Amino acid sequence: MPNSGYIGRFAPTPSGPLHFGSIIAALGSYLQARQCNGKWLVRIEDVDLPRTVPGADKIILKQLESLGLFWDGEIIYQSQRTSLYVAALESLKSFGLTFPCVCTRKDISDKPYPGTCRDAIENSKTSHSIRLKTNDQEISFTDLLQGRYSQRLESDVGDFVIKRTDGLFAYHLAVVVDDAEQEITEIVRGADLLDSTPRQIHIQTLLGYATPDYLHLPVVTDKAGNKISKQSHAEAIDHTSPSNVLFKALDFLGQSPPDMAFDSDTESLLTWAIDNWTLKNIPKTRKIMLA
Ligand code: GLU
After folding, report:
1. In this structure, what are the phi and psi dihedrals at residue 52, rounded to the nearest 5 degrees?
2. Which atom from ligand 1 is nearest to the alpha carbon of 12?
3. DSSP state for residue 114 in the 8-state scheme
4. Ligand 1 closest atom vs CA 15
5. Tell me: the pLDDT tens digits for 233-272?
6. Residue 211 near residue 141 (C-beta atoms within 8 A)
7. Which domain holds residue 41?
8. Closest ligand 1 atom, CA of 10?
9. Whole-number Å distance between alpha carbons of 78 and 100
10. Most buried of 29, 111, 161, 217 (most Cβ within 10 A)?
11. pTM score > 0.85 for this model?
12. Residue 287 has pLDDT above 90, yes or no
């Protein structure tokens, strides 16, 4: 197993098969880990049960294998890690930094959350979410591609949900706990999550976790500028030609694969890609429209 100390990950939500946009995150995180002679882990983010489609995890893993993107170690499923999230929530509660919130989405359609329930008296009988208090200190980090990014959570986002009204843990809490527990050193993912990162750094700081490095890749959009997703009829992956898909993904990431690579098998294409992976060639933008 590779052992440079670098640990990266790909963390798909199993709401359907991978589409071209999620392939970009898979490939970018894989190449970054392999070029650093590090480990590349895969974590199935099925904490959001209503979004989880039965069997989608298996399809995603098969897709990764067909692309030649083989991971290290065991696959982790968030649905099996509730006890870790409970412990993190208990710590945050013990710091006096959480509060129950009975606001509905309709009550607070505008961001940032206005603090409606922050000082309300707890009534545990009413169904509620749990929010984490924020403050107005600036949280900044330097993304390896997108550069410096800052937010003041209280004014930009407001206190945010870490446990939902339906009893499920929220993505921000689960992702931070898992990245820390798996000792991830660098997170490579889509730039649609750039503005989530300060919230995640806030949780890391409160829980005493290290903050990993971040690299947010451009996301693929449709002609209207929306991120492609299963909902927007994302282009399904061309199962007949995994090297064709890899070629297009490398091209999207500005890596200029040689023409001959088009006909290569996935293994030689990935070998070329690991050797030639160059961060400075990735377009420094948050969105790229699929031609
Ligand atoms: N599970 C998230 C997604 O599929 C990615 C989370 C992350 O990489 O932090 O969009």
Report:
1. -80, 130
2. 4
3. -
4. 4
5. 445 565 568 988 999 999 999 999 987 655 678 999 999 9
6. yes
7. 7-81+184-289
8. 8
9. 23
10. 217
11. yes
12. no
